[in-house]
Task: inverse folding
């Protein structure tokens, strides 16, 4: 079918679908000029909010290359600080405004740039996005900690009462100010970006920081300026939006940014006036639906999903290159592929350990362990997508939800375990459908489309009465008569499933399919020119992901014994990916480690270390995670394994210290926080000791040119040297360079 | 930030919290109003029933000296830390009070707390913990309970699957409300057992009476329905339809309120109110959303005769955030207002012993008192050693018209009906609440129930 | 038989015509060289032939079959393979795996192929056995080009497009490649089209040469003929005064 025919067919289907939904929902409101004008007037304030949020997104993206998911959260912090100063500390409003906008926001920008963003800028796209998710979670945590969400934080709107009345609708001064400021900022920034030296420099640094540096530009300084401007935009947005949000909810303020994605994408992430138009479009569509449509039960949540749907449409309508002839970007290898045999051994060890440990756990801890492992199974689905294929797909819960529903649906007709298999298959098919955007979209746009997909699934598809419109109850499954009712048995069952899926994935990776997928990631153009169908390969990877995550979702429903739409929120999915990314996106062992650490954290905070200290740790955790991610974009597992390889003694010391601290705390019944601190303290001591020992070893064997070859290992890995420099190689190198007699020469 | 519902869920629960009421129209319970002396407590030592019998450990969580109860509350979630702190405090205060007065069933009351963290997993773990370590779950204030099987599957000391008795402070989902071993004071607006389709639903009659009294004939206006989750709209839609159909309080517009909406999302509803000259605005959503609606209506120039808040507005946070806008708003509560502590001994006791007085705390307190009542009934019938989970469940199932000494709307827990009795307070200019209906302080208005035939899942559009 | 037919292909990007009305015919069994100054449109032409770039006007035919609307992977199945000017190696895989990917893909349309055997043979032939287990990212550019060549050959093509295959190679390696390519054409019946800047290499190897300048085909002929043509001399050396 030719391009043109295909486009017309798709257009027809879309229009047909839209009419099919709208026609029965028509509210009968007459279409008069006044009503139409009203829709526009209703839309303007909402559009203003979207526009001003999206401006910050676009500015930061075009000056730093980072799509900052935490933009709303930064604005939220500034809004709360504004409240703190102007209401709580009773400063005059203008003074508080100036302080927040021109002192606090720039300071935040500087700090963020220094400690997080500079390193994120060089990281692969998925790491960047996930890093900003971590930042958002961290800021949310801090805000919740400082300003108790159980209280209210009213902020008066700017401009006082009154406003301009048009066609019977009053546009308050505050809303006019918001709309006006959005326009002014857009124009000013556009001028800055296109017509000033600073703007050109900022854009040059995004394109090629090294090249810019060679021309006398200081990328670090430019990056700081970009983030200062970005944070000031965020602060402006936060302060202007906050009075419109009931009770100043931190979460609402932080997540509102997601609705502005569509506007930013319509502006192609660089064109500010178009961003404004996009915001208007989103606002108009939303208000149109709430004014003229009377949506029944099935579609009642449609207005909340409209921004996500529009995002989808905008992404797909953008002109895209079909196949990228990419710049060959030297990326880190995101995986250390274990051999089939070692994977088998690891799987047996895992199941064995679970078989031994599970019966020893209390019911409560067994079910917490199960939760952790179930999360691991869901995340396993992302390993082929994010790790092998390099496709930034951020909707694990969307797939898991399908699996959960399918498990519930088929449990009536067949034993639970079989239902899981069927659920996997069905989710695999859904995965293939989800792969369709991946054919057109890459990189950031692909990531955004997956976020839109997750939103549509959670807020529209899962709410359909047939799916999760009602809460679904499930029974525990049994295998050939073996009841899996007890939490311990079910924990073991989940571990076995994880091991099976992980082994299957490892086998896949070592097979020709695995090579094909990685080849596609490394160069789509070359793969395509070798006869590999990108469509089939991508669909296949998504199918595999669907099967794994679908089974994970089914396990989730079985373990909690209920399935509902609320188990699969989009933002929680992003947080899940963060936990996976910390350990390593490409490794089949990473998901279970991520799941187990989550379970361990719950157990520790609940049973052992209760109190404000660990609550604070939980809140700050995501921020720490983001920092960990940035410092080790390949994942901690790779780091730790290599560290253990080259500095075995130091690693043993550190791990031992952590456990020792924990053990002492439990043994002597120290209050939880103390035990925690003790563990950390011992770890730091061991860290220092370990470094000292390594240093001494290095100095002992170092003599002239041939230093301790092992010493180069750990540092070398950080810069991409994956094969260690052996003594033989070193000597050969010296000979080639003509420096093998250097000692003699130098003496 | 993991799998936890947003803050709106938490505050939405306040809207669902059946506001309790006490017995208004004198009659049956008139005799109970008045000081309760410790001689009324059947199990206190001064009664003599305790001395003379050797106490035994009759079931899980009961020893010769102690009764342990589990208090499961969302105190440590990362999204809304400390949400259920008031409820936990209330149960602990109740336990302290009992222990001062000589104990319960001749034994000391111990409270074991469990943090459910706004997580369905942890809520279930709490029940498992309760089953293994305590006699009953009292005052549960966990908004994410989604699975009640740990309650029904709980075995007693002898191994029989009696189930774990629970007197929760609140329930959200029908699966929890309708659990046979759970006895909330009030249901969640959906009859048990939860079945899809058109059903008969009971709603409090007093609300309609009050509104027609205030608004007179030809009343029409706005209904604000919470749409953040299906459970919330389903809980309130029955009363709304009842008001529209039986009491002719016609709807100019039924607007949905999502916890995430900015104020401008309410502009269409506000302009409609103004254009149609609505005489009332009935809010069933949480107070932040309701407040946004009120503010936007003020901005657009809508001036209804009456603003009515069915849910969570009996909260100083609301009046503080609202300022002038809230003045004159009518707020529905199902308990004697805390301002009338000197009109009711129980209210005085409650406000005296609990620092964080909010609806969660009040719900947990009432639940604890209900538990106490059932225990005392059991002891009266079979002595202090006759207290087992099975016998407690029987006692709970036979409690009729419990009103916590007049403090809350009378309830027969096994019926799981919504709160029958109401008190209406009005927000004053200074932000305080003043009773307006029924006029006599210390009383509640009880008129029974209206029945409406409705399918809650599909009733609300738009 | 004409293996490749480029029929009046024009490629426009906005206002700029990268390739303008180019028509070429490549018969089976020869080596055709394409030369021209930078920006002449050579790589764009290759991208059109390979299917990565759609022509604004014009047709491409492979062995008589019109492939203009065929995506690259279908063209590959019809016997087309290429290397890239800016390396498109599978950097995180080893050399052997790079070749295996191509050989694996080939199994789809050539049933009897054993990928292992093909890979070993090619590693042997292109003298890459030493580095077979090395990750390609870590190898020098010249070696990477050889890997790309081996990979393209592993697909068992009838028509091989080489885009600046000698760039980054030492003289020694270039000579080796030259004789290898000759061998492939004579013994294995391969047809090769190569874009080159290395004049001795392309003139010494090609049977026919075509020259592009500013997107237009300005000259065609044998190497000797081409070198005499004034248009060619002008393009490279400038106008004679």
Result:
């Amino acid at each position: 079918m030719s391009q043109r025919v295909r486009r017309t067919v798709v257009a027809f289907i879309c229009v047909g679908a839209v009419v099919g939904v709208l026609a029965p929902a028509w509210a009968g409101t007459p279409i008069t000029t006044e009503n139409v004008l009203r829709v526009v007037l209703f839309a303007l304030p909402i559009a203003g909010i979207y526009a001003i949020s999206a401006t910050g997104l676009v500015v930061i993206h075009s000056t730093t290359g980072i799509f900052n998911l935490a933009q709303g959260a930064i604005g939220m912090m500034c809004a709360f600080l504004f409240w703190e100063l102007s209401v709580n500390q009773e400063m005059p409003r203008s003074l508080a405004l100036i302080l927040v906008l021109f002192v606090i926001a720039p300071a935040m920008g500087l700090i963020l740039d220094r400690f997080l963003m500079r390193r994120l800028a060089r990281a692969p796209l998925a790491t960047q996005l996930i890093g900003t998710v971590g930042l958002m979670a961290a800021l949310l945590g801090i805000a919740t900690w400082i300003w108790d969400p159980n209280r209210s934080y009213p902020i008066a709107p700017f401009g006082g009462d009154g406003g301009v009345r048009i066609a019977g609708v009053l546009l308050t001064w505050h809303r006019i100010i918001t709309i006006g400021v959005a326009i002014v900022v857009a124009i000013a920034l556009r001028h800055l970006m296109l017509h000033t030296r600073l703007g050109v420099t900022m854009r040059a640094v995004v394109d090629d920081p090294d090249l810019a540096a060679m021309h006398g530009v200081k990328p670090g300084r430019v990056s700081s300026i970009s983030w200062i401007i970005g944070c000031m935009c965020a602060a402006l947005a936060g302060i202007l939006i906050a009075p419109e949000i009931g009770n100043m909810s931190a979460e609402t303020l932080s997540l509102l940014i997601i609705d502005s994605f569509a506007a930013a994408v319509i502006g192609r992430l660089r064109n500010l006036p178009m961003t404004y138009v996009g915001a208007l479009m989103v606002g108009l569509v939303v208000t149109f639906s709430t004014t003229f449509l009377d949506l029944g039960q099935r579609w009642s949540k449609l207005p909340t999903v409209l921004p996500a749907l529009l995002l989808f449409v905008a992404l797909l309508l953008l002109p895209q290159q079909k196949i990228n002839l990419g710049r060959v970007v030297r990326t880190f290898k995101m995986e250390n592929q274990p051999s089939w045999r070692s994977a088998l051994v690891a799987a047996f060890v895992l199941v064995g350990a679970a078989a031994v440990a599970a019966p020893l756990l209390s019911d409560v801890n067994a079910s917490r362990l199960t939760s952790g492992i179930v999360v691991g199974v869901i995340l396993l689905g992302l390993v082929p997508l994010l790790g092998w294929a390099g496709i930034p797909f951020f909707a694990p819960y969307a797939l898991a939800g399908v699996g959960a529903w399918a498990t519930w649906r088929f449990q009536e007709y067949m034993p639970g375990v079989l239902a899981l298999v069927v659920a996997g298959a069905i989710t695999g098919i859904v995965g293939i459908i989800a792969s369709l955007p991946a054919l057109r979209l890459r990189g950031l746009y692909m990531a955004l489309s997956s976020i839109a997909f997750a939103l549509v699934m959670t807020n529209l598809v899962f709410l359909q009465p047939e799916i999760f419109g009602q809460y679904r109850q499930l029974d525990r499954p049994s295998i050939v008569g073996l009841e899996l009712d007890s939490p311990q048995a079910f924990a073991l069952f989940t571990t076995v499933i994880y091991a099976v899926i992980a082994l299957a994935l490892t086998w896949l990776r070592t097979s020709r399919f695995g090579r094909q997928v990685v080849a596609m990631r490394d160069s789509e153009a070359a793969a395509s020119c070798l006869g590999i169908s990108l469509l089939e390969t991508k669909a296949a990877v998504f199918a595999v992901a669907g099967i794994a995550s679908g089974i994970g979702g089914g396990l989730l429903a079985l373990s909690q014994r209920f399935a509902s739409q609320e188990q699969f929120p989009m933002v929680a999915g992003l947080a899940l990916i963060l936990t996976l990314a910390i350990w390593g996106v490409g490794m089949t062992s990473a998901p279970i480690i991520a799941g187990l650490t989550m379970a361990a954290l719950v157990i520790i905070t609940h049973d052992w270390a209760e109190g404000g200290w660990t609550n604070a740790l939980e809140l700050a955790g995501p921020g720490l995670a983001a920092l960990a991610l940035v410092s080790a974009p390949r994942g901690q597992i790779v780091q730790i394994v290599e560290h253990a390889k080259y500095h075995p003694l130091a690693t043993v010391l550190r791990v031992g210290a952590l456990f020792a601290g924990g053990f002492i705390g439990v043994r002597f019944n120290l209050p939880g926080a103390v035990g925690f601190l003790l563990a950390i303290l011992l770890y730091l001591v061991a860290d220092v000791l370990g470094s000292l020992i390594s240093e001494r070893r290095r100095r002992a064997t170092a003599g002239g040119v041939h230093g301790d070859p092992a010493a180069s290992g750990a540092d070398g890995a950080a810069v991409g040297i994956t094969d260690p420099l052996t003594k033989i190689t070193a000597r050969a190198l010296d000979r080639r360079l003509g420096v093998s007699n250097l000692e003699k020469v130098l003496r | 930030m993991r799998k936890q519902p947003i803050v709106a869920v938490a505050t939405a629960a306040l809207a669902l919290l059946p506001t309790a009421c006490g017995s208004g129209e004198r009659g049956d319970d008139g005799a109970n109003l008045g000081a309760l002396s410790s001689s009324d407590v059947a199990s206190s030592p001064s009664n003599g029933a305790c001395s003379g019998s050797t106490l035994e450990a009759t079931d899980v969580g009961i020893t010769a000296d102690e009764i342990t109860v589990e208090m499961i509350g969302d105190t440590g979630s990362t999204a809304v830390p400390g949400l259920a702190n008031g409820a936990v405090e209330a149960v602990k205060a109740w336990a302290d009070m009992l222990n001062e007065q000589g104990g319960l069933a001749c034994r000391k009351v111990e409270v074991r707390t469990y943090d459910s963290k706004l997580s369905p997993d942890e809520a279930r773990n709490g029940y498992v913990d309760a089953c293994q370590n305590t006699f009953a779950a009292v005052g549960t204030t966990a908004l994410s309970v989604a699975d009640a099987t740990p309650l029904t599957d709980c075995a007693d000391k002898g191994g029989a699957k009696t189930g774990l008795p629970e007197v929760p402070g609140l329930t959200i989902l029908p699966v929890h409300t309708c659990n046979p071993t759970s006895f909330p004071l009030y249901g969640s607006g959906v009859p048990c057992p939860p079945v899809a389709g058109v059903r008969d639903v009971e709603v409090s009659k007093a609300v309609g009476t009050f509104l027609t009294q205030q608004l007179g004939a030809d009343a029409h206006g706005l209904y604000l329905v919470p749409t953040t989750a299906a459970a919330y709209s389903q809980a309130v839609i029955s009363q709304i339809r009842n008001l529209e159909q039986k009491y002719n309080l016609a709807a100019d517009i039924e607007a949905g309120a999502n916890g995430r909406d900015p104020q401008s999302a309410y502009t269409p509803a506000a302009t409609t109110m103004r254009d149609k000259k609505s005489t009332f605005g009935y809010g069933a959503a949480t107070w932040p959303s309701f407040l946004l609606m009120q503010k936007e209506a003020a901005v657009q120039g809508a001036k209804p005769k009456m603003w009515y808040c069915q849910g969570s507005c009996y909260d100083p946070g609301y009046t503080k955030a609202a300022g002038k806008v809230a003045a004159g708003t009518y707020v529905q509560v199902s308990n004697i207002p805390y301002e009338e502590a000197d009109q009711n001994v129980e209210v005085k006791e409650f406000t005296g012993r609990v620092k964080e007085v909010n609806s969660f705390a009040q719900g947990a307190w009432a639940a604890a008192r209900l538990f106490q009542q059932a225990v005392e009934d059991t002891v009266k019938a079979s002595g202090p050693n006759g207290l087992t989970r099975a016998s407690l469940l029987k006692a709970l199932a036979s409690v009729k018209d419990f009103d916590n000494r007049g403090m809350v709307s009378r309830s027969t827990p096994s019926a799981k009906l919504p709160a029958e009795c109401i008190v209406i307070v009005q927000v004053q200019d200074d932000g305080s609440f003043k009773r307006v209906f029924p006029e006599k302080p210390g009383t509640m208005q009880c008129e029974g129930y209206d029945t409406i035939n409705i399918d809650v899942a599909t009733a609300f559009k738009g | 038989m004409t293996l490749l037919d480029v029929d009046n292909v024009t490629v426009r990007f906005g206002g700029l015509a990268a390739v303008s009305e180019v028509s070429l015919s490549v018969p089976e069994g020869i080596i055709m060289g394409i030369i021209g100054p930078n920006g002449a449109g050579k790589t764009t032409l290759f991208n059109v032939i390979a299917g990565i770039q759609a022509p604004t006007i014009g047709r491409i035919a492979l062995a008589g079959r019109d492939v203009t609307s065929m995506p690259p992977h279908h063209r590959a199945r019809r016997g087309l393979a290429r290397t890239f000017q800016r390396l498109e190696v599978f950097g995180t895989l080893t050399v052997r795996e790079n070749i295996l990917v191509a050989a694996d893909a080939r199994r789809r349309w050539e049933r009897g192929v054993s990928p292992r055997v093909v890979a070993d043979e090619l590693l042997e032939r292109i003298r890459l056995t030493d580095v077979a287990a090395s990750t390609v990212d870590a190898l020098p550019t010249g070696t990477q080009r050889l890997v790309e060549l081996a990979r393209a050959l592993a697909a068992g093509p009838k028509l091989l497009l080489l885009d600046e295959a000698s760039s980054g190679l030492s003289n020694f390696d270039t000579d080796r490649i030259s004789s290898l390519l000759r061998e492939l054409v004579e013994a294995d019946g391969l047809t090769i089209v190569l874009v080159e800047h290395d004049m001795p290499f392309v003139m010494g190897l090609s049977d026919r040469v075509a020259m592009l300048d500013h997107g237009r085909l300005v000259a065609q002929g044998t190497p000797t003929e081409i070198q005499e043509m004034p248009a060619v001399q002008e393009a490279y050396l400038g106008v004679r005064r």
